[in-house]
Amino acid sequence: MGFYKYIRKIWYSPKENLAGVWNERLIEWRKEPATVRIDRPTRLDRAKSLGYKAKQGYVILRQRLIRGGRQRPIIKKGRKPRRFSRRKDLGLSYQAVAERRAVQKYPNLEVLNSYWVAKDGRYYWYEVILIDKMHPAVLADKRTKWIAEK
Question: What is the C-alpha to C-alpha distance for residues 69 and 88, in angstroms, rounded to an integer?
Answer without folding.
Answer: 9
